[in-house]
Design a protein that fits this description.
The chain has about 425 residues and is mainly α. Helices cover about 80% and strands about 0% of the residues. The radius of gyration is 21 Å and the shape is globular. It is found in: Cell membrane.
Length: about 425
């Protein structure tokens, strides 16, 4: 099965499941703290729940190495199918876990183990999906096709948050804590089955089939990438870090900042509208990059974050939902540029034989330990300095530094043929 619509649908469903779970866990973190960590201290329970949430980010780099290697050795389709099984299976099992009151310490232990599986699976999902879409896309449409992955992530967060809000309005607090929190997690089962069915019906990408026909499949792709693509790995890591920090500000930290000056429902509503706007902008960013090139879109997005970080956070923390929405929508434009460029540039930077491994490892290192801790670092900076602008300055410094690095070092990759032999892949524009 090779039709464009089938390729897009099969690729996006796993990515949607990953970000749906991300949103659901964040939205029910308080409830999960009570169910799995009943310390008697609500703050301690919440912190324990959020710590388990963060464990998945620690395991992303390992997952990137494992699934990336699988994609280079056995094929992109195999990596995608494995990722969707891991993500949907672990998410579904979280929805079925007995509580601490039922099985004691085994409950939080199993929750931790399942979050580790989610992290391992997510480590290779985004870049495997990007590589799959890009390797099927015509050269002049690769940016647009890859943009659909970024857009699906925004839509999944809205869907996950919305499902929890709906349940909180339909159920009593007691029902929500007893069984209601499980329902969104259980939705991963049908999503995963649909994704697995669609992915197993796909043919391998033309680029990988050609690679296999030329007998150029790398036996140890991670080692090969570390030996021959070190500069590319560092550059891709920087790309992923600034992209991830910005996205987690948009998806989580801004919502928390609004909640401090307003009510939770209004904050989540503003955040959802902004994410819908972000999802709509993503295809535009991809389309522009197909015509103007990746470099101006990527560098412009990073430098725009550096300029907008402080005014956006002032708007978000103003206490006015209208001004907060304006700020988040302003922020969403350069963030869409960064996310879409990460989806396609990390694929185009690496040669075909190490593409899945190199891009997954660099992306998961940047988005995992670096970007995954960004909301926590932002909150800690605000608490330590007493200034709500400290988190904005943190983002601005990262964005400015990476933007200047990209301006000097990032090659223009939009015209690179993805199927070329590794030996002729250049590191310059």
């Amino acid at each position: 099965m090779r039709s464009p619509s089938a390729v897009v649908a099969a690729t996006l469903v796993g990515n949607f499941t990953e970000w749906f779970d991300f949103a659901v866990y964040g939205a029910v973190a308080v409830t999960l703290g009570r169910v799995f960590f009943p310390t008697g201290d609500s703050v301690a329970s919440l912190l324990a729940s959020l710590a388990v949430f963060g464990i998945a980010f620690v395991f992303r780099p390992l997952g990137g190495a494992l699934l990336g290697s699988l994609g280079d050795r056995r094929g992109r389709r195999v990596a995608l199918s494995t990722a969707v099984i891991g993500i949907s299976g672990a998410t579904t099992l979280i929805g079925l876990l007995p509580s601490y009151a039922t099985i004691g310490f085994w409950a939080p232990l199993l929750l931790v183990l399942l979050r580790c599986v989610q992290g391992l699976s997510a480590g290779g999902e985004w870049t495997s999906a990007s590589a799959f879409l890009a390797e099927y896309a015509p050269p002049g449409r690769r940016g647009f096709r890859a943009s659909l992955i970024s857009a699906s992530g925004g839509l999944a967060i809205v869907a996950g948050t919305g499902s929890v809000l709906l349940l909180e309005n339909l159920l009593t607090p007691a029902q929500m804590q007893s069984w209601g929190w499980r329902l969104p997690f259980l939705l991963a089962a049908p999503l995963g089955l649909i994704g697995l069915y669609l992915r197993l019906r796909l043919d391998e990408t033309p680029v990988y089939r050609s690679l296999r026909a030329r007998d150029e499949v790398a036996a140890t792709p991670v080692r090969t990438a570390l030996r021959t693509e070190r500069r590319t790995l560092v550059l891709a890591f920087a790309c992923a870090a600034v992209t991830g920090v910005g996205f987690y500000y948009l998806a989580t930290y801004f919502t928390n900042a609004m909640s401090a000056t307003g009510n939770r429902t209004a904050s989540l509503a503003v955040s959802s509208i902004a994410l819908l706007f972000y999802a709509a902008i993503c295809p535009v960013a991809g389309w522009v990059s197909d015509r103007a090139g990746r470099r101006p879109v990527y560098v412009g997005g990073a430098l725009a974050h550096a300029v907008l970080a402080v005014p956006v956070l002032l708007l978000v923390g103003s206490g006015s939902p209208g001004l907060a929405l304006l700020g988040m929508c302003l922020f969403a434009v350069p963030q869409a540029c960064l996310n879409v460029m990460s989806s396609i540039v990390l694929v185009e930077l690496f040669p075909a034989r190490t593409r899945s491994s190199g891009s997954a490892l660099a992306y998961s290192l940047g988005v995992g330990p670096i970007a995954g801790t960004a909301p926590l670092v932002a909150a800690a900076l605000a608490a330590a300095t007493g200034s709500p602008l400290a988190p904005a300055l943190y983002l601005a410094v990262i964005a400015a530094a990476v933007g200047l690095v990209l301006a000097r070092k990032l090659p223009e990759t939009s015209a690179r043929p993805l199927g070329e032999p590794a030996a002729v892949t250049a590191h310059t524009a």
